[in-house]
């Protein structure tokens, strides 16, 4: 789940002794700075994120400072990815469609850069971060091998920059998780230009409706991927929050009837190809314009 650093939420303030003082509305990212550093800041961030997500329990935290990016990137021999659009403002090598193996400095620029003159530029940056993390985890597995301990192999590169309450076995399990860019959730909302800085206003009702699953009947992977794809690509923008449950019900029926091969593919764990995305866009457009009924 990608959560904008600019989310406006209640952030806790603490005195020099670490005692809670008061709460103020501020960007989510400031919570770490308002802690006392390292573990106490991680604990404060864990608490605030859980509250932002309507009291979802957070099981663990892992914090890396910015120097970890280049260190880990170079430890795996560079991370290779396809540049999705023209990012030559970040690096001259980042032309649209180019396949680039990032060195440490390039990796840091790729995941950090944002144009602060453009409202909503952090949303684009989060997409690059998701792309990079997916490719990084793939590189970790290729370098260490499927049977190796990732923590033991790479901890020397991470330890100077890392704060976590996870043990080595938990970190290995985390790395073994199959990260798919298409399955990444983004907290819905709107980026606005505030008086002092950019503010991301969370649409709490839409977030709840998108993620909720029927009791005792969890959604299949294919259903989750396609409804999240719809939300991330604007197909729910004109759907009233109160209509989303019915939208999902009708879409799942339509999807199963009209795209059974893609449904089977996604349920088997495969990723969406560019052709799949094009077909899914066409089907969602047709569904929105000609099929969906509020009843």
Describe the structure in your own words.
With 295 residues, the protein is α+β, with helices and mostly antiparallel strands. Helices cover 48% and strands 13% of the residues. The strands form four sheets. A two-stranded antiparallel ribbon has the order 1-2. Helix 9 packs across helix 11. The longest helix has 24 residues. The mean pLDDT is 87.
Task: Reconstruct the topology from this structure.
Elements: E1 8-14, E2 20-27, H1 30-34, H2 38-52, E3 62-64, H3 67-75, E4 79-82, E5 99-102, H4 104-112, H5 121-144, H6 150-158, E6 162-164, H7 168-176, E7 189-193, E8 198-202, H8 204-211, H9 221-232, H10 244-258, H11 260-267, H12 274-291
Antiparallel strand pairs: 1-2, 3-6, 4-5, 7-8
Question: What labels would you give this structure?
Answer:
alpha+beta, 295 residues, 13% strand, globular
Summarize the model shown.
The protein is an alpha+beta fold and 295 residues long. It has helices at 30-34, 38-52, 67-75, 104-112, 121-144, 150-158, 168-176, 204-211, 221-232, 244-258, 260-267, 274-291; strands at 8-14, 20-27, 62-64, 79-82, 99-102, 162-164, 189-193, 198-202. The strands form four sheets. A two-stranded antiparallel ribbon has the order 1-2. It has a two-stranded antiparallel sheet with strand order 3-6. The protein has a two-stranded antiparallel sheet with strand order 4-5.
């Amino acid at each position: 789940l990608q959560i904008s650093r600019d989310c406006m939420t209640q952030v806790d303030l603490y005195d020099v002794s670490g005692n809670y003082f008061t709460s103020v509305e501020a960007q989510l990212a400031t919570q770490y700075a308002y802690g006392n550093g390292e573990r106490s800041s991680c604990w404060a961030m864990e608490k605030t994120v859980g509250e932002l997500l309507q009291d979802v329990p957070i099981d663990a935290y892992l914090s890396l400072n910015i120097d970890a990016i280049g260190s880990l990137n170079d430890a795996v021999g560079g991370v290779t990815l396809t540049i999705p659009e023209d990012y030559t403002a970040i690096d001259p090598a980042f032309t649209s469609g180019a396949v680039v193996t990032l060195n440490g400095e390039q990796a840091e620029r790729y995941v950090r850069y944002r144009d602060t003159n453009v409202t909503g530029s952090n949303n684009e940056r989060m997409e690059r971060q998701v792309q990079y993390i997916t490719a990084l985890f793939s590189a970790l597995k290729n370098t260490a091998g499927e049977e190796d301990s990732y923590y033991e192999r790479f901890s020397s590169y991470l330890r100077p920059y890392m704060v976590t309450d996870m043990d080595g076995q938990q970190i290995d399990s985390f790395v073994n998780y199959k990260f798919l860019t298409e399955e990444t959730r983004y907290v819905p909302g709107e980026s606005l230009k505030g008086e002092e800085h950019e503010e991301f206003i969370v649409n709490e009702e839409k977030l709840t409706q998108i993620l909720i699953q029927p009791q005792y009947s969890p959604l299949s992977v294919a259903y989750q991927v396609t409804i999240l794809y719809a939300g991330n690509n604007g197909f729910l923008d004109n759907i009233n929050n109160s209509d989303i449950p019915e939208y999902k019900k009708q879409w799942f029926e339509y999807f199963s009837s009209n795209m059974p091969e893609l449904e089977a593919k996604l349920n088997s764990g495969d990723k969406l190809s560019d052709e799949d995305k094009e077909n899914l866009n066409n089907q969602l457009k047709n569904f929105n314009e000609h099929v969906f009924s509020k009843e």
